[in-house]
Amino acid sequence: MSSSPITQPPVAPGTTATRGDDESDAAFESSHESPPGNAESGGSYAEHQDQGDSDDDGYVYHPAQEHADVTGNDDDDEEEDYDDEDEHDDEDDEDDQDYFDGSGGLEFELVIDELAPGAHDDEDDDDDDPNEPGNALQRRILQIIRGGGGRAHLGSQQLLALIQGHNVDDIDDDDDYWEPPRRMRPGYVPAFPKVPSEQGRKLMESGVFGAFDLREPDSKKKRLTRRLLDRELGLGDRTEQKTNLALMAQQMIPSSKPEMVIHYDDPVCCGQFSDDGNFFYACGKDFKVRMYDTSNPYNWTHYKTVRYPFGQWTLTDADLSPDNKWLAYTSLTSQVCFAPTDPNDTGDPYTLDLAGGMVRQGWRDAFPIFSIRFSGDGRTLVAGTGADSIVVYDIERREPLYNVEGHDNDVNAVCFADKQSPHILYSGSDDCTIKVWDTRSMSSRREAGAFVGHMEGLTYIDSKGDGRYILSNGKDQSMKLWDLRMAMSTADVERLDATKPTARRRYQYDYRFAEYHDYMWQPHPHDNSLVTFRGHKVQRTLIRCHFSPPGSTNSRYVYSGSYDGFVYVWNLDATIAAKIDVKSVTEGLRIPGYTPAARRREWMTLVRDVGWHPNAPLLVASSWNGPTMNAGTATLHSYNENDVDEAEPGMGLSVNEKIQPDEGLFNWRGLRGFMDDDDDDFF
């Protein structure tokens, strides 16, 4: 393992890097203010971040949406009068019936009470400011839906757009901009990629993704107990024994019943193990990173908590240096915090400004960082930013090497292709593309290749670490596997105009609030991915996906978190190998602000990140929880064939962030269904 280049406090010449002090406390407290939003869909910094707390009425405030409501164009509010009302009534009834038939039987009733001229509404406040967002929105809705003679002229597509929060000025109910063609309306099932995937099956049989025994059909796979017996008896030759051990590892997928549930007061944004499995970190929306000693994966110890002293909105990403001595973590600013993982070093974190110290104070003048990664030699950082750019930063020289605007939208994820090489890297963006870069030629500001196939923006990318395979998650509710050898050249991208299918989408899908329906999906005409995985939900936030580790799973699987509260594990042929239920094991937990009114609302769990232990059959799901998802958990799931566990402590131990048992965090309506009578002593 290479030595870390950060042998001293990384203070750049001048003021590029600073050491935090007590004065940062006030800055940290003030940093909890939400960042201002941008009204443009798909291009705002806030679009990719966690949502604010909700009130008991279910209204979720979002700066970008509020800004859009206030600044909407009011110049063309007048509705067209219809001369032939009877004819249009018949057409509207027919269109509405078509939409009703394809929408699952949903009906909407809009009731508007109007006052007679001069009348006074007792519920109105005389001091209401007509310029307030809420009043402006009410006026806007009334202007749109009012018609002559008290009749409302609002078609089905305009009503749907209004409910989804979109501008309906330019939407004609006869126009198919909002309503897809009849073959793609609700109820239509598009031709999704075939499952099982033939290409994925070939990858499984090739041995690149773990051992595969062609002599054992899927219907006659040996049970784990039989494989253990074969191992103890020493059956087979050396090759067969090695294959048997690999197949044993593949069968030990963690189960839904948790070993332990760690509770946090805020949502957990990401959590991962170190490459050796001795360390785990969890990043929270409260700008704190908790560090745990996991040298015994079934007996954790919390030993340190560090914070981002001037964060904006939330922590966005974190990464360990190759020697595990430093943890880099980021927020919506251009500064990266470095915290030593040594438990004896209790000082504040150091910071490096990836903008090179050339920006003015304030996050508006810098750029937010969505993703950060160390190179394999630990000498370089690469970051994906909200300025549509990829930043390559030299840690030893403490200066940016390149800042390339390589995408047409936010760069949500970056990673190196090979853990041993700092040269080839990938970037994934909201412009729906993955681009391949060679750091030795980035001065030309042109990518070496590209992948296209996602129809919505990317939320995360992960490299297998072999310099060849890459995995991506997209807002089109799909995960894709790519091969570097199949990357499209820059010339081919331009010749085929390969980004055109996603440059002008016929509908506007806002993954923060809206549901993604199957009829919205359509294949990319130039898709150069190997395998497409579906079934999970990529909504509300930038949900992550990963390759399973070679040690504990023999590299057999790919997996992802999901908005529906599950961890999805796939075989390489796109068939689902397992679904780990995180929502059920966290439902009903006692969290801050969990009032009786909140209990009447639906419990929600979103799994944002999943870390699989490199050596043990155990994974950790980092989640958001609660009716408004304003709390968090990290649930430890291990392989267990049965629900009965005789180990000490018993399964389902409920602890706080410092791994201290706390019965006050547990509600008997939740995990009770997963627990046995013998486990009661452990709460």
TrEMBL record:
Ranges of the WD repeats in the UniProt entry: 404-447, 451-492
InterPro entries found in the cross-reference section: DCAF, WD40/YVTN_repeat-like_dom_sf, WD40_PAC1, WD40_repeat_CS, WD40_repeat_dom_sf, WD40_rpt
UniProt entry tagged with the keyword NADP: no
Record key words, sorted: Repeat, WD repeat
Region listing for Disordered, in residue ranges: 1-111
GO aspect biological process, one term: proteasome-mediated ubiquitin-dependent protein catabolic process
This protein's GO CC annotations: Cul4-RING E3 ubiquitin ligase complex
Gene3D superfamilies on file: YVTN repeat-like/Quinoprotein amine dehydrogenase
Coiled-coil features, chain-numbered ranges: none
Compositional bias annotation for Acidic residues: 72-99
PANTHER family found in the cross-reference section: DDB1- AND CUL4-ASSOCIATED FACTOR 11
This protein's name: WD40-repeat-containing domain protein
